[in-house]
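REQUEST FORM: STRUCTURE PREDICTION
Request ID: SP-0412
Submitted by: Lab K.M.
Chain count: 1
Length (residues): 145
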Amino acid sequence: MYHDKHFQKDSHFPLIAFNHEQIKDCTTAGFILTKQKSFDNIANHLLQINSDVLTDITEHMIKGERVKGDTQEEKDCLQLIHDLDRIGGHVKGSITSKKYMPNEIWSLISFQGAPSWYITLSPADNKHPISLYYADTKEEFTPVI
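STATUS: Completed
RESULT:
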C-alpha cells in the first residue's frame, strides 16, 4: 500500500478506471479500423444511411424481433451495425465482446482440451464454532450427535 491511500479508499475509482480502459480500447480499435481497406466503405455507409430505416430496425431489435433486411436500405443499416461491431469486439465488457466469448471458449477447448472441474464441498463458515467464538455474540455451539 502506498503512503497516499486516496485512490485505494475511493469507492468509485475501479469504475472510473474501467471506463477509461474501455475508452482507450475503443479508440485503439477505431485507429485499427482506419488502417484497413474497408474504412472508406464504412465511412460512406455511415454518411448515406437512412436514419428512419435505422430507427425502425432499432425498434424491432428492442422488441426482440428478428430483422432480415428485405430492402437494400435495411441491408445497408444491418451492414453498418455489423461494421461497428468490429470496433466493439475490442472493448472489454461491451456487448460485442460478450458475443465473441463463446467462440473464444470453443477455440480454447479445441486447442487445449476440455477443462477439468474440481468441486470442493465445505461447511458454511457462519456455522463453524471458531467463527461463532470470534463473532463474540455469546452464542453456544452445541452440535447434535
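NOTES: The first helix runs from residue 6 to 9.
Reviewed by: T.R.
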